[in-house]
Amino acid sequence: MSAAAQAHFANPRNDFWRLLHAARFTSRLYEPAEQFELLREGIGVTNAAHRTTPGSGDLRRSDVAGSAERLERIARELEPGWLAFVGKEAYRGAFNERPELGVQERTLGATQLFVLPSTSPANAAVPWGDRLRSFQELAGRSTGLPWRLGVRALVVDRDGRTVLLRYGNEYATWWITPGGGKAPGESDEEALRRELREELGLRELELGPLLWTREQWFRDEPGHCGQRENVYLVRVDAFEPAPELDLAAEGCHELRWLTAGEIDGLPTRSADLVEQLKRLQPGFGAVNASAQCFVEGSGWCFDVEGFSGSGVEAVGDRVELWLCEGGEVGAFGEVLAEQAVGVFVRAALP
């Protein structure tokens, strides 16, 4: 089909042109026949092979003979910041190496190389969202701009529900925890309290531990390559969100409390959000307080199912703990060890 149209990725079932636009490489959706118009967007397309084939698996070694030298010449003469291969076979054919997706160690002079997943309909086993994330990563990296710093909260009530916001565009829908970018000079806590007040109307809260740090590459935020954000736990009693902002004007389509079961199967950012939520496990273990939680000096200590630590403050008539492997504990507001297992424990005090 591409050969007949004399255009790259001309099969209407091929997602290449849609992914370019969804990742904001282009300001609009281009048609294959407009391929030379891409130069106006600062990008161009070329071939690694001279012969059109039904799929990358149909390439012969003779089809890619000399492609490495030709790409080196393009890099030397045009000096692009990045050169991307759509599909692993294109890279493998050029350099006789099996690549992983993403940034490659090999460079062509100052030009960095990146391998994207194939956009062919024959690669339908790789979901749209996974392919889009690869295109977004390249889009973000290629800007050379700094990260926008942000914070988010996994707001969890006593029934284990969490509150999520639904966003979307012409290509995708996703659910995300409340939060956003930090203003200059704001601490994580200051930014998160502001975001939760604006998006949920939540004013009284106790900031819990840092759960994870998430990086999202994109070109949607002017002046930045994406957002790097810390995600904290905030445990609350159930409440009815009363946003101070007009969330619809901010691009939010819905705000809801959801259980882990309801989230399972939804498109979320992070993609493993439901697994993270399940690991909180309120009341895990039914710890015997008199045997397992005890006072040592001025702080509470614990010993729960092979984990131990100290320095966790009592909350009312209970003690709330976050367990980490290696006998380390992260108190509320502190960064947990990288190997945190994320088990939340409540135990009555002795």
Core attributes:
single chain; 350 residues; alpha+beta; four-stranded mixed sheet; elongated; disordered N terminus; disordered C terminus
Structural notes for this entry:
It is a single chain. By secondary structure, the protein is of the alpha+beta class. Helices cover 21% and strands 30% of the residues. Strands 7-4-9-8 form a four-stranded mixed beta sheet. Strands 10-5-6-11 form a four-stranded mixed beta sheet.
Order of helices and strands: HHHEHEEHEEEEHEEEHEHHEEEEEE
Low-pLDDT stretches = 1-5, 282-350
Question: Based on CA inertia axes, which overall geometry fits?
Answer: elongated
Number of helices: 9
Radius of gyration: 25 Å
Task: Describe the structure in brief.
This protein has 350 residues and is α+β, with helices and mostly antiparallel strands. The protein contains nine helices and 17 strands. It is elongated and about 65 Å long.
Set down the secondary structure blueprint.
Blueprint (H helix, E strand, L loop, with lengths): L1 H4 L10 H7 L44 H12 L3 E5 L1 H8 L6 E7 L2 E6 L11 H16 L4 E9 L5 E7 L4 E4 L2 E3 L6 H13 L6 E11 L8 E10 L16 E7 L1 H4 L4 E2 L3 H6 L10 H4 E4 L2 E6 L2 E6 L1 E2 L2 E7 L15 E9 L2
Parallel strand pairs: 1-3, 4-9, 6-11
Antiparallel strand pairs: 2-3, 4-7, 5-6, 5-10, 8-9, 12-13, 13-14, 15-16, 16-17
